[in-house]
Amino acid sequence: CHCSAVVEVMNKQQQCKTMRRMKPSKALHLLICLYVSATAASFSVEKPSSSKACIAARSAVLSGALLLGLGVPAASAGDIIRGQQIFQINCAVCHAQGRNVIMPEKTLEKEALEKYLYAGFNEEAVVRQVTNGKNAMPAFGGRLGDIDIGNVASYVIDMAEAGWEK
After folding, report:
1. What are the per-10-residue average pLDDT scores of the chain (166 residues)?
2. Cα torsion for 113, 115, 117, 119, to the nearest 10°?
3. Residue 46 β-bridge partners
4. Is the distance from CB of 98 to CB of 160 less than 8 angstroms?
5. Phi and psi, residue 109, nearest 5°
6. C-alpha angle with apex 43: 81 to 64, nearest 5 degrees?
7. Is the full-model pTM beyond 0.90?
8. Can you name the residues that pair with 137 across neighbouring β-strands?
């Protein structure tokens, strides 16, 4: 298993200092190589020397990416499938297929979100709207957790990008 080697490399302070001095593209390349190595090892035919080592290796690599500012884009941050489930339970009564049964002009279509959301068409603006509510829309901040609200926001942005046609 390559995982123990990856963990060893990632735990060395000197390696971390070297990575911080690297150009972002080289640091990203190193992180991708280490992550692929750790992931590939967990799928090998041989039993890995330690599944905890593999998990630790992947976690260390992803943590390194975040420290370098190489995190995932916001649009992929949430769990869209879970967001869809939460949306169907909590939001679809008023917003089925991206519509708005209370205020028909304020749909969940991309153009309407750009026009009516406080900060425009982005996940953070949807999170703010869902959390705090506005006008006829109730606040869900007390009913849903932050992760669930983030997942709903990811789903709404994803569907709006697709024109609610998925």
Report:
1. 47 46 54 54 42 52 53 57 96 96 96 93 95 94 95 96 88
2. 110
3. none
4. yes
5. -70, 150
6. 70
7. no
8. 134
